[in-house]
Design a protein that fits this description.
The protein is α/β, with parallel strands linked by helices and 291 residues long. Helices cover 41% and strands 15% of the residues. It is built from eight helices and seven strands. The protein has a seven-stranded parallel beta sheet, with helices on both faces. The protein is globular, with a radius of gyration of 18 Å.
């Protein structure tokens, strides 16, 4: 197995996003008149997805509580001379009023057709030791907020001239199975899968719901898990990466945020019109292979 870097290694940061790494698709609805709302847009997969959609010509309204991080995403979009644009909207996903106001503001930028529920968080602890307040906060951000955003976005999609659009939820291999010490994260991801199917059931065929499930992605959220997991399990950080994160995978390398973002680009496009209620599982062989 290829040696993986320690947490302090500079290589635990993904390479810069360049236009040649973005999947570009021809789609009549990928224009500046079309709005895609993306949560978690200040960093990681959310940032990469906001950038990729803007490069594809969409107007992206990026939501995050981290205003400085959002500004960094806007700067990256502008540096790439993207066909679309990024609008930064500071939003607390635990606040119902903030969520409704963010969708209202997004609707002023064009016709909302797409929503990517990506914002996530993690806490490593066993169920008996899991802080209840942390459970509540994670569920608010990772399950309640996607539900409320879908509630407010769906009428905008339905009001377009053809009712075509999609809501995508960032699931995970942990939406497929469970591992120890991540009970809240796993519960939220399984819930998102149910929300995805419910959106598809109510979308009349043109408003689609789908999810994206991947393994470990090289993001700040993932890097922060290494020390926590090492401490919880009493193993080294190198063992966390090699045995816990990549041990079960067949593809022995971490995924990059832009690779995940490209799945959202495809899923939102007309090329994916039969992706409805289903899951884009790009997990390197985590879930359906064994030795």
């Amino acid at each position: 197995m290829a040696s993986q870097p320690s947490q302090d290694d500079d290589s635990l940061s993904p390479p810069p996003i360049t236009e040649d790494r973005v999947l570009r698709l021809e789609d009549d609805r990928f224009s500046s008149d079309t709005v895609a709302v993306v949560t978690g847009a200040a960093s990681g997969i959310g940032r990469a997805t906001a950038i990729a959609l803007a490069v594809n010509g969409l107007t992206v309204v990026g939501l995050d509580v981290d205003e400085d991080g959002l500004d960094g995403t806007v700067e990256t979009v502008e540096s790439l001379d993207a066909d679309g644009r990024m609008v930064a909207t500071q939003c607390d996903l635990t606040d119902s009023t903030d969520i409704e106001a963010a969708v209202d503001a997004a609707s002023e930028e064009g016709s909302i057709r797409y929503l990517a529920n990506i914002a996530g968080m993690q806490h490593i602890a066993s169920i008996p030791e899991f802080p209840t307040e942390e459970y509540d906060r994670m569920m608010d951000v990772m399950l309640r907020a996607p539900f409320l955003l879908s509630k407010h976005v769906m009428p905008h999609i339905e009001a377009t001239d053809d009712g075509v659009g999609a809501i995508a939820n960032m699931s995970s291999v942990h939406g497929q199975y469970a591992t120890r010490d991540k009970a809240t994260y796993i519960t939220a991801k399984h819930g998102l899968n149910g929300l995805t199917r419910s959106i598809a059931a109510e979308g009349e065929g043109t408003l689609r719901g789908f999810s994206v499930s991947v393994g470990y992605v090289l993001t700040p959220l993932m890097a922060n898990q290494i020390t926590d997991t090492a401490e919880e399990r009493g193993i080294s950080e190198e063992e966390v990466v090699e045995d816990v994160m990549l041990g079960q995978a067949r593809t022995k390398e971490l995924m990059m945020p832009i690779e995940v973002a490209n799945l959202f680009v495809f899923g939102f496009s007309s090329h994916a019109k039969h992706l409805n209620g289903g899951d884009l599982l790009f997990d390197g062989g985590y879930t359906h292979t064994y030795e």
